[in-house]
Amino acid sequence: MASRTRHEVGPVHRLAEVPYSPGWLDRLVHLIGRLPGSNTGYCALIAIAQGAWLLGGLWWTGNVPVGSVPWPKLFSIVITPALLWGRFNLDRIAASCMDRFRPMLAVGDEEFERLRYELTTLSARTTNLVTLCAVGALVVNALVAPERWLRLWGGSARLFWMAVAPVAIPTVAVVAVSLAQAVHQLGMVDRIHALAGPIDIRRAKPLHAFSRLTALTGMGFILLATYVIGMRRDLIQALPAVGALTVALIPIGIACFLLPLRGIHERLVDARDRAIAQVEDRLATVYARVHEQVDAGRPDDPQALKHQIDSLSVEMANLKQLSTWPWETSTLTGFLTALVMPILLWILQRMLERSGL
To answer: Which residue among 194, 252, 292, 345 is buried most deeply as judged by most CB within 10 Å?
Structure first.
């Protein structure tokens, strides 16, 4: 079954009036989601179209022999489709997380739908501003960059503007807006967590809802860094800005996973501390009763008192073992696996270089 977009699962249609207009990337996702067929198939078509355009330009300008396929030069054609595919899935997951978190929110249906809309939608104003800055930076770099920079992207200024730019410009725009959308979405997670009602540490599973979204968002940036390191290490070595941005994607990915969950983690810590304090008070009450009876020389049902002490002690031990991190073990394992990948790839590349392969 084709994945559905957030607009089709209902947040827009359930609101009498949306709080702001969606940006062009959200509209594109919405448009593709309304078309028949699989969203994955349309992403693949975008990659094929970009690849055909770029490859044709390389052949036409003589940068590569006609009929040959220089895969490293085509590395960018995967980025836009991959980010669009990720947007489809992240928005679907975000909507699902909202539904799982719903019991913790003391808000009405209208407010709940508004929060879900804001969680999955970046405003047109922010989208346009980010797009303008990103594309403007690319164009300025291309205009003032030395020929060496342009050769890394294709071979010459003529090739860049005729073959590479029509692919590079939308790619840069999608990357920049996707990053802005991730920052916005993860900020909304923190805001939604702050709206949660009283927390019972013994029933904290609904509070794990958004960890999957934050983990997958962070993994996306880490995998993007892994892809760039694997495909175009020459760009990283030749262009310090590209290298710095690629390396920065790794701590950005870690921050995407952890920072939105920090607030709810602190609340879980407070909830566990309160629960432990309550058990300690009850234990103190039972021990006080034991002391009173011993002092009076009339112990009443010592077996019952021992049972109460044992039960409260077991409860105390169980509370201390409860995790206050709002994620499942499988979520953390998957994220750590993705985090190790660029490190292993870098080590492998270094080993191959030293061996002369």
So the answer is: 252
